[in-house]
Amino acid sequence: MHSLSSHLTRPLSFSFSHFRFLSLFHSPSSHPKTFSISQKPPTFSIRSCTSISAKPSSDLRPKRRAAASDSSDAKLRALRNLFPGVGIDAYVIPSQDAHQSEFIAECYMRRTYISGFTGSAGTVVVTKDKAALWTDGRYFLQAEKQLSSSWILMRAGNFGVPTTIEWLNDVLAPGGRVGIDPFLFSSDAAEELKQGIAKKNHELVFLYDKNLVDEIWKDSRPEPPNEPIRVHELKYAGVDVASKLSYLRNELAAAGSSAIVISMLDEIAWLLNLRGSDVPHSPVMYAYLIVEIDKAKLFVDTSKVGAEVFGHLENAGIELRPYDSILSEVESLAAKGAKIWLDASSVNAAIVHTYNTACEKYYKSLERKRKSNTKAYEDSNGWSEGPTGMYRVSPISLAKAVKNDAELEGMRNCHLRDAAALTQFWVWIEEQINKNVKLTEVEVAEKLLEFRSTQPGFLDTSFDTISGSGANGAIIHYKPEPDSCSVLDKKKLFLLDSGAQYVDGTTDITRTVHFGEPTARQKDCFTRVLQGHIALDQAVFPENTPGFVLDAFARSFLWKIGLDYRHGTGHGVGAALNVHEGPQSISFRFGNTTPLQSGMIVSNEPGYYEDHAFGIRIENLLVVKEFDTPNRFGGIEYLGFEKLTFVPIQAKLIELSLLSAAEFDWLNDYHSQVWDKVSPLLDGPARQWLWDNTRPLVKQ
């Protein structure tokens, strides 16, 4: 599954922070509770813009049915009716929850509820008379279909399309008030919004007490998830909680920090060797974690904590606190003078603003004591020991990304079981197509789930299966729906991007096939995508190389004939965790300078998409590993990749005349490995199918 590792997946237009760590563990105002923002963390540059307009989505696609438009209009009217009560002129609704998650629980899908757009990335801005949605290139076609005529579709990243900030500055009269739910924006994103709209004298308003979408959602809003938490066994985790906490506390001490607030759900799950089921496709639980030098507190719904998990946490010295008491704890730490490590790119603005406000109170109190020359001031050791926010990238991010031996072993094992399930699936689907059985895209996805669910350790899918026939394959993150999906057509390309969560690992794989005879155009495009896939797979590069340096390897064969694709080439993948994981990526967006390191896992998924015609993508997961080169220029190590995914690539789609001898060798060697590794897990027709589809190709 493709993730855009860029500012486009975030609520606004900020770019990823840079990362620098070593690897480890391896072998209120006029309205109650309404705040105008004045704190000044790091600033961000916003590109200038004059008056820019974009065509409404209604100008670019057929009209949707009236019922959908009426429903959207009713929600927008209800939302706007709340503006006077909180004193705002516009309201910004991001995709994220309070933890900046990509996949979120249904009860937090506020942007989806208000707009009808179901893609995983996007931002909504509603003013008193306009409503606009920004999304990236993966979702342009999907958004065209799902947005009613009440909405303006902003194709983020396209020439002439304004950012949310530019648009707000253009459509609001000077001195406007822009409201947000501060829990749903990272501190960085809120600060960027504040700075950007201030250029037109607009004011950012934090609405703590209520989320306006929740106010109109009312009783129809789903209940928050309440699934039990489980312990992630040490044989899969590889490192115990005590060792991970010791590492983290050493990082705190070295930075001169007394505590860290952790809000990213996968970071909490990894650090505590816990897994949950609160978020679809991601084995995480809703929680915050504060780790101090001598203690740690987990803020979570305790009804999810059974006896085994309670004992696991108790043994690690973790105290339990109610989930919604995080702000009061942050205030308490500031009052005690704690220097808190905050990752402003992920910790929400509500937490950071609460801490900064509490710090101001602390210093005002200290100043009063100083002026009165009290003993309390003398005992405080002066100003130098007071609370201070330390704004740095979370040290857990990289530690989690560089997998240990146990995690890598689990990933290798689960990928082979996943390959066996996919082989059984491809046998089944070819049999049905040959019998002229009509199969919908949804039925195909459900059948694949059946095959995967029979594999040992299967827990869930790792994302909604992208099952796209013909033109639907060109919708990069297409999700088939029962009432609107297509029937598979043997005359069209079929793209299947799917993945699974197993107890020992996470998978993500894409294959594109044709059940009949592909056209010359389709074969040419497919082969060039394959050549890019091979080029990246075979890449050897010096240590400290960031992923963006490798992105062109995968695109160059398409570039030769003037083609390209609108997404990055690779994203990080968690080990029995989120299918999209940072900080590493392989993308044409060069803002992410995180070096690829041995033990990291990335996807290799170039593609090509012709709107309203077909889509092609080939995806394997790779492990970064040390590569033995005959020379070591500069005295440094060189790195390459090890494959995790072992499923055949359809030969009939390859234009063999385009392949070099080295590419032939790669393909035949890959299929030989597929047979050797996966065939022991199969028998009968599935084993025969695998044999038939891994035979060496011969160049004519």
User: Which term fits the overall shape?
Assistant: globular
Widest sheet: strand order? 1-7-6-2-3-4-5
Overall pLDDT level: 89
Write down the Rg.
Answer: 26 Å
Low-confidence stretches: 4-34, 37-65, 380-384
Largest β-sheet summary: 7 strands, mixed
Give the terminus-to-terminus CA distance: 34 Å
What is the share of helical residues? 25-40%
Provide a brief overview of the structure.
The chain has 700 residues and is an alpha+beta fold. The protein is built from 21 helices and 29 strands.
Write a concise keyword list for the protein shown above:
700 residues, alpha+beta, seven-stranded mixed sheet, single chain, six-stranded mixed sheet
How would you describe this protein?
The protein has 700 residues and is an alpha+beta fold. A seven-stranded mixed sheet has the order 1-7-6-2-3-4-5. Strands 13-12-11-9-14-15 form a six-stranded mixed sheet, with helices on both faces. α16 packs across α21. The longest helix is centred in the middle third of the chain and has 30 residues. About 9% of the residues have low confidence.
Summarize the topology.
Layout: E1 34-36, H1 66-80, H2 83-86, E2 90-93, H3 110-115, E3 123-127, E4 131-135, H4 140-146, E5 152-155, H5 164-171, E6 177-180, H6 187-198, E7 203-207, H7 212-217, E8 230-231, H8 234-237, H9 241-255, E9 259-262, H10 265-272, E10 274-275, E11 287-292, E12 296-300, H11 307-315, E13 318-321, H12 326-335, E14 340-342, H13 349-372, H14 375-379, E15 389-391, H15 395-401, H16 405-434, H17 441-453, E16 458-461, E17 466-469, E18 493-498, E19 500-502, E20 505-506, E21 509-514, H18 520-537, E22 541-542, H19 551-559, E23 570-572, E24 581-586, E25 601-604, E26 607-610, E27 614-617, E28 620-627, E29 638-643, H20 661-678, H21 684-692
Parallel strand pairs: 2-6, 4-5, 6-7, 9-14, 12-13, 14-15
Antiparallel strand pairs: 1-7, 2-3, 3-4, 8-10, 9-11, 11-12, 16-19, 17-18, 18-21, 19-20, 22-29, 23-24, 25-28, 26-27, 28-29
Helix pairs in contact: 6-13, 12-13, 16-17, 16-21, 18-19
